[in-house]
């Protein structure tokens, strides 16, 4: 018997993003159902309602998607969902809060490819400065890049305090080291840009964080990537569809938000398709997103 595929989409926020709903339906789910205002303590009950209402062999056709606006909460919800399974009653789970896991995965995968193709370097050989690091995309980007061995600096636009806390939480949760740096003035940002091989901008939409003057004073810069598609660009002069072209006035390669977004979309959609086609229930987080994004990035 062919089971209907059902996706229960949980978010701690007031609304589920239409972006995630559309991708899930386009990927092939028969039904998607949003649940809003979901607290961590609600996850177990919701998962158990989902597992016990279908026979065990329908578990693979039943999915949970975890949305939200912060990576640690998304991962805590993922753990709570896993703990709620009662074998053989098990279902698939995919966490991607604010699209951050798939966006960060796509950005780091594109940068990794550009480093290899244009500079014969690996992530483990480079210093990376991440702007917008207190955001959910920046956080996840830092974890993935540091896990691949990059020397990662997370830049605080309002000083050191919050990025210090984030660095400590990343060390505690993932066992990787990122260095907090103060980017609260143009002079401080210039120094950070000057010392970087890779610049990753994950700042708020429509906010320019790095200027052309700063880029031109970065002798070791190899790649600059930006996920903000709303003008002005996060990195001045970086075109939205840049895909490995030289960034004006530098010897660095630029990767723009539409090139990253293309891989992000295919990664998120691809993970939904894998959930739908899986023979056994699967669990996906940013690590799975990065594995798939690496295959997709060109
Ligand atoms: N291309 C794609 O496929 C794709 C997909 C998803 C998201 N995005 C983009 O990715 C970016 C990050 O998303 P997000 O959800 O992580 O965003 P977010 O939560 O709004 O955070 C973005 C970061 O920007 C910082 N910021 C805010 N105002 C700033 C300013 N004036 N100067 C410097 N930094 C500032 C925020 O700091 P605070 O912590 O102080 O607010 C935070 O660190 C956005 O531009 C979003 O549109 C792109």
Automatic annotation (TrEMBL):
InterPro entries: Aminoacid_DH-like_N_sf, Methyl-teptahyd_DH_N, Methyl-teptahyd_DH_N_sf, NAD(P)-bd_dom_sf. Keywords: Oxidoreductase. Pfam families: Mpt_N. Residues 18-98 form the Methylene-tetrahydromethanopterin dehydrogenase N-terminal domain. It comes from the Bacteria. GO terms for molecular function: oxidoreductase activity. This is Methylenetetrahydromethanopterin dehydrogenase. It comes from Paramesorhizobium deserti.
